[in-house]
Design a protein that fits this description.
The longest helix is centred in the first third of the chain and has 21 residues. The strands form five sheets. Strands 9-10-8-7-6-5-4-1-13 form a nine-stranded mixed β-sheet, sandwiched between helices. A three-stranded antiparallel β-sheet has the order 14-15-16. It is built from 17 helices and 19 strands.
Length: 457
């Protein structure tokens, strides 16, 4: 990939700056429905028995509320609540392992909430159970999200001893005023110490999470945060856009609208961030993600084999993904399935049927080919029409005639080039990849049509 990974075109970014799905799946979670049954899930587990398994475990607890957060979480100081949760999780893990336990696990990720809410014995209990019930590949990628505020440095030693080899640390912003306004005050010297300790212990990579668009953030303030981050040289960086939706997330009501950066300032922060990180040698992976050129994600993208799932970009694309815990999502066989989102309902469901399936969707042949097209574009910024035709038995230009017509505006703006054999996203189209993918989203079109035609009075 050339050094021109991405080009900033202000006018086009403003033109296409409308909301759209993040495509961690296609169809998106909007299409999940409660008519999806456990029998469909069980059948999906038997669909591709040779696929490796990626496990996701959701730990919903946090000690403190971060005002920007839109995750599924429970704020508590009571450690015994985690024991109760692990009891339920154990039942679910045993039941799911009875269906999938004979597969090789190549990836495990703990997310949340704050997985390091768990004490060392609780972490060991859960890890021991997973290893007892599933067969881990010797080189499995085992990662965990960390809140640097409520953790001792030697927790990293414990995690490493339990087999974790990747870390993701939530930094968000080093500016004290910003931290105060989002109720997430932390000590940067300790974050530096964490990253250093992870290196000493031989963690394969450390990812740092930042957020832009938070209250009182400015271009110069965020540039200072980036400068500090770059001295740590993390293998990966995620720079997320803060989406202010106080009607949806109660915690965000504690953030004052007038404290948020204006739209043009926010865009400028993003522009500066991309320039700074690519200038410092990071590869723009897509959307919010950056990685050093020797990181697995960057290598996979250059080789055209990067994938994407509910955890974001990943090198583990040929896996089935099993989600465990409250609200967790699975991608198994040709279906998606989500667990109960409310803890009470999760407990009740696991108590009654040893699993917590809430809703899901089975993919038809049209979903499968569109998913492949969207994944190719969002991960690798290009697709090979012949490969799609061979795999799915369709004549690309005919099958996607309506979609290619929608792509015309992007072609005219030189964001995308389409020829007989391929579709390629130009460097100045990469920031708008979600909008480009929306052209191939049949559900989005159907929803737009319903909205268009439903209001006649």
């Amino acid at each position: 990939m050339s050094n021109e990974q991405i080009i900033w075109d202000q006018a086009l970014i403003e033109k296409y700056n409308y909301s759209g799905p993040r495509y961690t799946s296609y169809p998106t979670a909007l299409e999940f429905h409660e008519a999806f049954t456990s029998a469909e899930f069980d059948m999906a587990c038997a669909r591709y028995p040779d696929r490796k398994l990626s496990l996701y475990v959701h730990i919903p607890f946090c000690h403190k509320l971060c005002y920007y957060c839109g995750c599924n979480k429970i704020i508590t100081r009571h450690q015994h609540k985690a024991d109760q949760y692990l009891d339920a999780l154990e039942q679910e893990i045993r039941q799911r392992a009875s269906l999938l336990g004979d597969r090789d696990v190549s990836q495990l990720h703990w997310g949340g909430g704050t997985p390091t809410f768990l004490t060392k014995p609780q972490i060991s209990r859960l890890m021991g159970l997973l290893r007892e019930q599933f067969r881990f590949a010797p080189d499995a990628e085992i990662s965990i999200e960390i809140d640097p505020r409520e953790i001792d440095l030697d927790m990293l030693d414990h995690l490493r001893a339990e087999g974790f080899n990747r870390l993701s640390i939530g930094v968000q912003d080093f500016n004290k005023e910003v931290q105060k306004l989002v109720n997430r005050e932390q000590d940067e010297t300790f974050i530096f110490a964490l990253v250093e300790r992870a290196r000493e212990l031989g963690f394969r990579s450390t990812n740092l999470d930042l957020i832009y668009g938070l209250p009182k953030q400015t271009r110069s303030g965020f540039a200072d945060t980036l400068a500090q981050v770059l001295t740590m040289r993390p293998g990966r960086l995620s720079v997320f856009n803060y989406a202010h939706m106080p009607t949806l997330f109660a915690a965000q009501r504690k953030i004052k609208d007038e404290d948020l950066p204006q739209a043009n300032e926010k865009l400028a922060i993003l522009q500066d961030t991309i320039a700074t990180l690519t200038g410092a040698g990071y590869q723009f992976i897509g959307m919010d993600h950056f990685a050093l050129p020797d990181d697995e994600l960057a290598v996979a993208q250059r080789q055209g084999v990067l994938h994407r799932n509910f955890q974001g970009y990943t090198t583990q694309g040929d896996c089935d993904l099993l989600g465990l815990g409250v609200s967790a999502i699975s991608m198994i066989g040709d279906c998606y399935a989500q667990n109960q989102k409310e803890l009470k309902k999760y407990y009740a469901s696991v108590g009654e049927q040893r699993e917590a399936l809430w809703k899901g969707v089975s993919l038809d042949s049209d979903d499968l080919v569109r998913r492949e097209v969207i994944k190719s574009l969002i991960c690798n910024f290009q697709l090979d029409k012949a490969a799609i035709e061979a795999q799915y038995g369709v004549a690309f230009d005919t099958y996607f005639a309506e979609d290619l017509a929608l792509l015309k505006t992007f072609i005219n703006d030189e964001l995308v080039t389409v020829d007989a054999g391929s579709i390629r996203v130009a460097p100045k189209g990469r920031l708008l990849i979600r909008n480009i993918c929306m052209c191939f989203d049949k559900y989005l079109r159907d929803r737009a049509r319903q909205q268009q035609f439903s209001r006649v009075i």
